[in-house]
Write a structure and sequence with these properties.
The chain contains 6 helices and 5 strands, in the order βααβααβαβαβ. The protein has 137 residues and is α/β, with parallel strands linked by helices. The chain has one domain: 5'-nuclease (Rossmann fold).
């Protein structure tokens, strides 16, 4: 590695992991928290697929609005460790490649991690069991 060049880890995050991180929930595993902490220290980038944000709105409503979603979105956008990943029409062409993950939204999230060749922060057993991507939990 060249002197002065610092590499950072990159992760993709799923909805529950992000929710538990934002709410400082004890449900977030130590390994997942470590990945987020790397981001805080500038040692990692945490990619958030657009579908995760959509699911986060729904989950937040379902659980009684524990988060001020607009404020959290501003915080995520401002945080240098976070990168918001759009969902593009051409991404649907990858659904076949990601078919080992049965649920459509999870397939979209796992597909981002697969395309970026990075681990996915998730405790979803279907994603982990798919062997489509490396998972951290």
């Amino acid at each position: 590695m060249a002197r002065g060049v610092q590499t950072v880890n990159t992760y993709v995050v799923d909805t529950h992991a992000l929710f538990w991180y934002l709410t400082a929930s004890p449900q977030l595993s130590a390994r997942a928290k470590d990945a987020f902490d790397e981001g805080k220290r500038g040692e990692a980038r945490v990619c958030i697929p657009a579908i995760v944000l959509a699911e986060l709105v729904y989950l937040n409503e379902k659980l009684g609005r524990q988060l001020d979603f607009a404020a959290e979105l501003r915080r995520l956008r401002a945080g240098s460790q976070f990168e918001l990943i759009p969902f593009l029409a051409d991404d649907t062409l990858d659904f076949e490649a990601d078919r080992a993950v049965p649920e459509m939204h999870d397939r979209m999230i796992a597909g981002v991690a697969r395309r970026l060749h990075v681990p996915l922060i998730t405790n979803d057993p279907q994603i982990a069991g798919s062997n489509l991507v490396t998972t951290i939990w």
